From TrEMBL, chain B:
PROSITE patterns: ABC_TM1 (PS50928). The chain crosses the membrane at residues 20-47, 101-120, 165-185, 205-227. GO terms for molecular function: transmembrane transporter activity. This is ABC transporter permease subunit.
Length: 257, 235
């Protein structure tokens, strides 16, 4: 039994000469909910995308359930990376639903193509998860016929239908109109309550505090501070963390320089 | 108005029409076969051009320039008369008794397919490039390999978005089948030419020929418009 679901060691990522991640170490335990916060451009998305190898780290390692994406000394194998990715669901800021497929087809596609389930089984599973995210009535709609909040819920169902062991959320509600944020957060919260292991990047601080087991604050490519939500928000230690929290909680106090 | 009085459409219609129906069928066959080949070639060249291989890219660019820089007529003549000779010469190194020709129709289909494939490849390539990167990322995140994501997520969308442009090329190809007359395919133009030169009913013959092309291309254009509307309804 491996306790660490995700294990990240000395992760570095550069784009050209621009180093975005400057040595990240952390672990996600089974069932744990990690929330990553930090200013825009600090490398949160890049880190999350390294966790399923959508970005290839420049150096360092990522393990999922004890398995490396790329064994040290070994060559990159696309097949192996792709098969590990099926254990990790990802939800994007901009949904990225397949526009030519209905909601149901979106949720069925990868189950059949990648998980090799039969059409009937995939359909049953898809209906189950669409039902779970509250879209039983909208299964036959195309993404263009759904609101942003509905689209994001389909995207969550699509990821869940693969029955992953971890879910990654990259600002899942940032592209939504304010009145649609709640319905998506509700679905994520239910998932958290069921014990799903999750890593979330979000700007919803209240949600982070309520759902997270641990908060990680990133700035400028480093993990600056991490801790239990209550402790972290009541009593931040680092100056930059303090500044960030007060800026997010009281944007009206920020003076433009 | 002597000229008009001398026109004899009735005779021309009676004599030419049955003959043209056969030619029409050949033109349609050549177009269908040629266009399917063109789409296959277009997709393959587009993928080659998007591959990371510099060598493959270089070869394809040179090939595209040659095909687009020379007339289709010349290419058809080459395909019919020269390409079989070249194939024969090469194979005869091993097998001196080897003989080889293309039927006119096969040469025509290959020539049309390759020529149009080159133009379609650019359409497909830019359609692929215009698909949101998020589509590929979503597929990869679900466990698709790059190849699977290209073939089952990106390519279908790219092809769908290309349908309106494909439609224009399809109508153009129908008209370009007239060039097959030069490599002795007994299609519409050749049959019309033969009849016109025998009877001197030139105006009548070519007017009927023009109508014959319209009979195919007008409904086709209409079908493409309907298809386009259906396809573009979502996303
Ligand atoms: N594919 C890329 N190529 C070049 N630079 C990139 C790429 N992706 C992200 N970056 C850069 O990395 C930095 C961090 O980006 P990101 O991880 O998206 O930050 P965050 O999610 O915290 O806002 C930004 O400055 C961004 O411009
Ligand atoms: Mg981001």
């Amino acid at each position: 039994m491996v306790n660490a679901m995700i294990e990240v060691k000395q992760l570095h990522k550069s784009f050209g000469s621009n180093e975005i991640l400057k040595g990240i170490d952390f672990e996600v335990k089974k069932g744990e909910k990690i929330v990553i916060i930090g200013p825009s451009g600090s490398g949160k998305s890049t880190l999350l995308r390294c966790l399923n190898y959508l970005e290839r780290p420049t150096s360092g390692s990522v393990k999922v359930e004890g398995q490396y994406f790329v064994e040290p000394q070994n060559k990159f194998s696309e097949k192996h990376v792709a098969s590990l990715r099926t254990e990790i669901g990802m939800v994007f800021q901009r949904f990225n639903l397949f526009p030519t497929m209905t909601a149901l087809e979106n949720v069925i596609a990868a189950q059949v193509k990648i998980r090799k389930r039969s059409k009937e089984e995939a359909r049953k599973t898809a209906e189950h998860y669409l039902n779970k995210v509250g879209l039983a009535e909208r299964m036959d709609h195309y993404p263009s016929q759904l609101s942003g909040g509905q689209q994001q819920r389909v995207a969550i169902a699509r990821a869940l239908a693969m029955e992953p062991k971890v879910m990654l959320f990259d600002e899942a509600t940032s592209a939504l109109d304010p009145e649609l944020v709640g319905e998506v957060l509700k679905v994520i919260r239910e998932l958290a309550d069921e014990g799903m292991t999750m890593v979330l990047v979000t700007h919803e601080m209240k949600f982070a505090e309520e759902v997270g087991d641990r908060i990680i604050f990133m700035d400028n490519g480093f993990i600056v501070e991490e801790g239990h939500p209550k402790e972290f928000f009541r009593n931040p230690k680092n100056e930059r963390t303090k500044a960030f929290i007060s800026q997010v909680e009281h944007p009206e106090n920020m003076v433009a320089h | 108005m002597d000229v008009l009085n001398n026109l004899d459409f009735a005779t021309a219609f009676r004599a030419l029409l049955p003959d043209l129906l056969g030619g029409l069928w050949i033109s349609v066959e050549a177009t269908v076969a040629g266009f399917i080949l063109a789409v296959v070639i277009g997709v393959l060249i587009a993928l080659g051009r998007l591959s990371k291989s510099k060598l493959l890219n270089g070869i394809l660019v040179v090939f595209l320039e040659i095909v687009r820089g020379t007339p289709l007529l010349v290419q058809l003549v080459y395909m019919y008369y020269v390409v079989p000779l070249l194939i024969m010469l090469v194979v005869q190194f091993w097998q001196p008794s080897f003989q080889f020709t293309f039927s006119p129709f096969l040469a025509g289909m290959l020539g049309l397919g390759i020529n149009y494939g080159c133009y379609l490849s650019e359409v497909v390539r830019s359609a692929i490039l215009s698909i949101d990167k998020g589509q590929t990322e979503a597929a990869l995140a679900l466990g698709y390999t790059n190849r699977q994501s290209m073939w089952s997520i990106v390519m279908p969308q790219a092809i769908r978005n290309s349908v309106p442009v494909f439609g224009n090329y399809l109508v153009m190809m129908i008209k370009d089948t007239s060039l097959l007359a030069f490599i002795t395919v007994s299609e519409l133009l050749l049959r019309t030419q033969t009849y016109a030169s025998q009877t001197f009913l030139t105006i009548e013959s070519y007017t009927i020929l023009a109508l014959a092309y319209l009979v195919i291309s007008l409904p086709l254009a209409q079908i493409m418009r309907l298809l386009e509307k259906r396809l573009l309804k979502h996303g």
